[in-house]
Write a structure and sequence with these properties.
This protein has 22 helices and 23 strands. It is of the alpha/beta class and 631 residues long. The chain folds into 3 domains: 244 residues, Rossmann fold (3-Layer(aba) Sandwich); 152 residues, Medium-chain alcohol dehydrogenases, catalytic domain (Quinone Oxidoreductase, Chain A, domain 1, Alpha-Beta Complex), CATH 3.90.180; 167 residues, Rossmann fold (3-Layer(aba) Sandwich). β5, α5 and β6 form a beta-alpha-beta unit. α3 packs parallel to α4 and α14 crosses α20. It binds NADP nicotinamide-adenine-dinucleotide phosphate and 2-acetamido-2-deoxy-beta-D-glucopyranose (NAG) (6 copies). One 2-acetamido-2-deoxy-beta-D-glucopyranose binds next to loops. One 2-acetamido-2-deoxy-beta-D-glucopyranose (NAG) binds next to α12. This is Enoyl reductase (ER) domain-containing protein. GO terms for molecular function: oxidoreductase activity; zinc ion binding.
Length: 631
């Protein structure tokens, strides 16, 4: 923030010491001031001194360039009124300096009157309260703001002669450092930690102690520190230590910070480096919308042309879609089943965007998105993937190394297997893992991941072709239920039972799996596809004796729903892609080509025809597909 005439600042403890010095320095820049203090005479004096300087920058003001407001900062209603008065006089708040502070008068262990509580109230509680009110006031003015809380060097290291003071300032330091996220709303909160300055408070300190710290710090350095925290836009949650010996130094140092910050597994940073693709934004783009609620996808949807609304929102990202995934639930989505509610409520949502999953390139980022770059490949698992471009909140973007169609298959199906094995199954190695519907979308990932982790894998499926595919993927024992009885095979070949079951069939299969579970076994409920039939959703089953069974064998039956693990999507997508890139993981795409938005309805119908094998993907931008295949 540039210190320029016309801004306004609110300063607690502005009647003396550091608060006064900063106030007068701001006045010399023509900044309007509200001086808040408990000492009326001194506060008024500062306001009138400041007034002379501020007036040099302005003429014909209809309000006082500086005002004094008497206030006990520990009294919330007093400070609330003071902030309101500031807003009323100056129409906004740009800078807030919380400088009011006191030291303890007696050692805390001899403190029979509890006066130490007052020290904490003034030094810490009031700072929290004033920070809260300052943020509120700044947001109401819709302007960026800077708050500086006065910590102290004794908030960074202990001060044996006044543990209460040191404790309160340590609190201010970590409170302020925790406020980094407000930067996103345009508000930077920083803490300034000077060593001893020759103020009323500093003069109370034992001179011997001042000497060993190198003597009193000059007030000019404190002001320089405050100005740097105000002016440098990169400072948010920053803690600036100012000492006579070492000058200005940010705390913690990068070395200290590296010790406690887990080195970011932040994919956004890692991917900031990869080859960017060139992207041209056209004037308009096409997308598929559901205009009529209908289970027939073709009848329910149409392609519409839309103008870009630029610029996009500050936290949004525009993704150019290259491949979109076809999902069995697309037809349930177009019939409105995903939203629920009355027919009237459903119709009110129309038209809405279709498509569940896509991969493409970042085509534009909002003003506040600084960890994603245009041209980076990325995936999404949000509605609206059947479009040439889709706008999504930045947090939904999953960067990937390459915009490949296989990524689309990795999303729902791959992530479910990967995360469910880690979190729900707690899978390690050397176990027997049973996967049902193993040739299906998620089943294929499950068998391969279980195998890669070093387990013996048993897989069920219906049909020779599927059985052959599973064999090729390294499954140890494939049970084709059209040819063999699953129960008999398990009983004979795995008499001790299986340790982990990845179960997505439900109904009788669930019962069968439960009965085949070993002592300490874990059965993961991924879905119950056999129960989904019928226009009226699925039938919940009764599981008589379930508790008795799992009790007798110390077993676990655990549900898994991908949506509840979104915080792990990026990490698991990264490792799936790595496995795929290093050819350890096979991703099966259906060989049939669907090109352009116009072929989405064909692709949806193809999926439901039962002829597909592997993930059905539509190439939304065929020209990109051609470029890639030439490379
Ligand atoms: N782990 C698994 O794999 C699995 C899967 C499915 C079912 N099950 C078990 O099978 C049973 C039925 O399942 P569901 O899917 O049909 O469940 P559901 O539809 O959610 O019904 C659960 C029933 O339990 C009753 N209930 C809930 N909390 C209760 C409480 N504190 N005390 C007494 N009754 C309570 C409810 O009746 P009110 O709310 O009207 O009181 C409700 O009728 C449940 O025991 C469930 O845990 C287990
Ligand atoms: C806070 O101040 C107001 C008015 O200045 C006063 O009425 C109130 O009693 C004070 N509250 C406390 C807790 O001291
Ligand atoms: C702001 O601080 C950063 C980090 O300490 C520094 O690199 C940069 O030069 C500073 N900017 C200005 C304008 O002083
Ligand atoms: C960027 O790429 C270089 C060379 O490939 C690599 O050494 C560096 O670590 C990468 N940086 C990031 C942030 O990934
Ligand atoms: C389709 O998408 C939904 C929602 O993301 C997901 O729950 C479901 O598992 C997906 N189905 C397939 C076959 O990918
Ligand atoms: C989704 O639609 C299919 C095809 O009509 C139907 O068989 C299935 O029961 C529906 N699933 C859900 C969860 O509504
Ligand atoms: C489950 O048990 C309840 C209560 O005994 C019964 O009303 C219901 O019909 C049973 N459902 C099934 C699918 O057997």
């Amino acid at each position: 923030m540039e210190l320029k005439p016309g801004l306004s600042a609110f300063i607690t403890g502005g009647g003396s010491g550091i608060g006064k010095a900063i106030a007068l320095a701001l006045a010399k820049k023509g900044i309007f001031l509200t001086i808040v203090d408990f000492a009326e005479e001194r506060g008024k004096e500062v306001a009138s001194l400041a007034e002379k300087d501020i007036s040099k920058f302005h003429s014909g003001l209809k309000f006082p360039p500086a005002q004094f407001v008497w206030c006990d900062v520990t009294n919330t209603s007093d400070i609330t009124a003071a902030f309101a008065k500031h807003l009323d006089t100056y129409g906004g708040l740009d800078i807030c300096i919380n400088s009011a502070g006191i030291s303890s008068s007696i050692p805390f262990k001899d403190d029979k009157t509890n006066s130490w509580r007052h020290t904490i109230n003034v030094n810490l509680i009031a700072v929290i309260d004033c920070t809260r009110l300052a943020i509120e006031t700044m947001l109401s003015g819709r302007r960026p703001g800077v708050i500086i809380n006065l910590g102290s060097a004794s908030g960074l290291y202990p001060m044996y002669m006044d543990p209460i003071y040191s404790g309160s300032k340590g609190g201010v330091v970590l409170f302020t450092r925790s406020l980094v996220p407000y930067k996103r709303q345009g508000i930077r909160v920083n803490v300034l930690c000077p060593e001893f300055v020759q103020t009323d408070m500093g003069l109370k300190v034992d001179p011997k102690f001042i000497d060993i710290t190198g003597g009193f710090l000059h007030m000019e350095m404190v002001i320089d520190g405050a100005f740097e925290l105000i002016q440098n836009e990169s400072k948010a949650g920053s803690c600036l230590w100012v000492s006579k010996r070492r000058g200005m130094e940010y705390w913690p140092t990068p070395t200290e910070e590296a010790k406690y910050l887990v080195k970011s597994s932040n994919a956004r940073k890692r991917y900031s480096n990869i080859t960017k693709y060139n992207i041209q934004l056209p004037q308009s783009y096409e997308k598929i919308v559901v205009h009529t609620l209908n289970h027939n996808f073709r009848a329910a949807t149409s392609i519409v042309r839309t103008q870009f609304k630029l610029p996009i929102g500050p936290h949004d990202v525009l993704l150019k879609v290259i491949y979109a995934g076809v999902n069995a639930s697309d037809v349930n989505f177009s019939s409105g089943r995903y939203f629920g509610g009355s027919d009237q409520e459903l119709s009110a949502r129309l038209p809405f965007d279709a498509g569940f999953e896509a991969v493409g390139l970042i085509a534009a980022v909002g003003a506040s998105v600084n960890d994603l770059k245009v041209g980076t490949p990325a995936a999404i698992m949000t509605f609206g993937g059947y479009a040439q471009f889709v706008k999504v909140p930045s947090k939904h973007i999953l960067p990937v190394p390459e915009p490949r169609p296989e990524v689309v298959a990795m999303l729902t199906s791959g992530l479910t297997a990967s995360i469910a094995f880690e979190k729900a199954a707690q899978m390690d190695s050397g176990k027997v893992v049973l996967v049902t519907a193993a040739a299906g979308g998620t089943g294929q990932f499950a068998v391969q991941l279980a195998k890669l982790a070093g387990n013996k894998v048993v897989a069920t499926c219906g049909g020779q072709e599927k059985a052959a595919l599973l064999k090729e993927m390294g499954v140890d024992r494939v049970i084709d239920y059209k040819a063999e009885n699953i129960k008999a095979v398990l009983k004979k070949e795995f008499p001790k039972g299986v340790d982990i079951v990845y179960e997505s069939v439900g109904g009788e299969m669930f019962d069968l799996c439960l009965n085949a579970l070993a002592v300490y076994g874990r059965l993961i409920v991924i879905g119950m596809i056999s129960q989904y039939q019928g226009e009226h959703g699925w039938k919940p089953l009764n599981y008589t004796g379930l508790c008795e069974k799992i009790l007798a064998k110390s077993q676990t039956v655990v549900g898994f729903f991908l949506v509840q693990y979104s915080h792990l999507w990026q990490q698991h997508l990264d490792s799936l892609f790595q496995l795929f890139a290093s050819k350890k993981l096979q991703v099966n795409l259906d060989p049939k080509k669907f090109l352009g938005l116009g072929s989405v309805a064909d692709a949806v119908e193809y999926l439901h025809s039962g002829k597909s094998a592997g993930k059905v993907v539509v190439c939304i931008d065929p020209s990109f597909d051609q470029q890639m295949s030439k490379m």
